[in-house]
Amino acid sequence: MASKDPESEHPSVTLFRQYLRIRTVHPNPDYGTAVAFFEERAHQLGLSFQKVEVTPGYVVPVLTWPGTNPTLSSILLNSHMDVVPVFKEHWSHDPFEAFKDSEGYIYARGTQDMKSVSIQYLEAVRRLKVEGHRFPRTIHMTFVPDEEIGGHKGMELFVQRPEFQALRVGFALDEGLANPTDAFTVFYSERSLWWVRFTSSGRPGHGSRFIEDTAAEKLHKVVSSILAFREKERQRLQSNPHLKEGAVTCVNLTKLEGGVAYNVVPATMSASFDFRLAPDVDLQAFEKQLQSWCQAAGEGVTFEFVQRWMKPRVTPIDDANPWWAAFNRVCKDMNLTLEPEIFPAATDSRYLRAVGIPALGFSPMNRTPVLLHDHDERLHETVFLRGIDIYMRLLSVLASVPALPNEK
Ligand SMILES: CSCC[C@H](NC(C)=O)C(=O)O
Ligand SMILES: [Zn+2]
Ligand SMILES: [Zn+2]
């Protein structure tokens, strides 16, 4: 039970607060201290431990609880170690102090995204071990760097390593989002992230004249086409109560660049967009759409990709998927209402799904406002503790899923 008395704080909450104090914050995350923290936990829990250096200076600690049947594929519990920067002046408490208020809310960067989940995994495994359980399937816990900046020095490299293949992962859990209602959200896919810069070239000249064919006019046209598309998608979402945010495509104009002086018409200008493409979008056709918006804007309008995800994958959420069936059954047994959704942004699950691993994004935080990346990110200790109970039940069932047809 949670307690207001600091003397009798639940040890799992104390461990959570210790981890929150490790400053794994961008742009200079202290991964060394975090990796040492997980190594210490591995020793405390009697788990095997390895460090996989995916690129110089970027280590993935892997903690393993072997199953009783090594021929079966394993369960991967993934979380990322890094957290996004803070605007300290907007916080009610120091974001790296892990302050707990008199009601039991813990304030810190990472309380929701996703240091809570890392500790819930560890504590669920610890308690199951203490209770004397053994399961057929091996459980691995991985703590990856750099998710918040794209996973390019983290999960993207890790899934290509022989050490990762050796884990023989059959199913993975990774991050989700809080849900302010009594329900829990679970993510079975995510939108494809495309960051695109459109550059327009035109005739330069004096700012006092009606110059023909300027870069700005053509950029304006392409921006208008994209914002009109945005509005169409926005209306589609708004007019259909059955559609969730992740099921439509979103785009935002996030950067405008160009110009040197008030009285010089520039020869080039650019506009950058953050596209989030719904999993059912035909990506080749969408690229052609970008080309035709450029052509319609006039000569000299081009685009380049800064990020471009081309492998959208969906983890099936029907009973034909034994992992989903197991996950869903536990939630039913625990009377948890699940809201399956497509993750609106990008997580490391995309790298797992792209190499063929079914993955669900789940951070067990109901009755909690979505505060990831926000000021005063916080989580109530009772919600955190209930998450450990939920993982205990989930792990017991997932790690006992009988041999699949390809495992016999
Ligand atoms: C280039 S990867 C960026 C990853 C980030 N993920 C989240 C969850 O905010 C995003 O979707 O913007
Ligand atoms: Zn995250
Ligand atoms: Zn994040």
TrEMBL record:
It is found in: Cytoplasm. Binds 2 Zn(2+) ions per subunit. InterPro entries: Aminoacylase-1_M20A, ArgE/DapE_CS, Bact_exopeptidase_dim_dom, N-acyl_aa_amidohydrolase, Peptidase_M20, Peptidase_M20_dimer. Its main location: cytoplasm. Zn(2+) 2 binds at residues 113, 148, 373. Keywords: Cytoplasm, Hydrolase, Metal-binding, Zinc. One of its GO terms (biological process) is amino acid metabolic process. The active site is at residues 82, 147. Zn(2+) 1 binds at residues 80, 113, 175. GO terms for cellular component: cytoplasm; extracellular exosome. Pfam families: M20_dimer, Peptidase_M20. GO terms for molecular function: aminoacylase activity; identical protein binding; metal ion binding. Belongs to the peptidase M20A family. This is N-acyl-aliphatic-L-amino acid amidohydrolase. It comes from Ictidomys tridecemlineatus (Thirteen-lined ground squirrel).
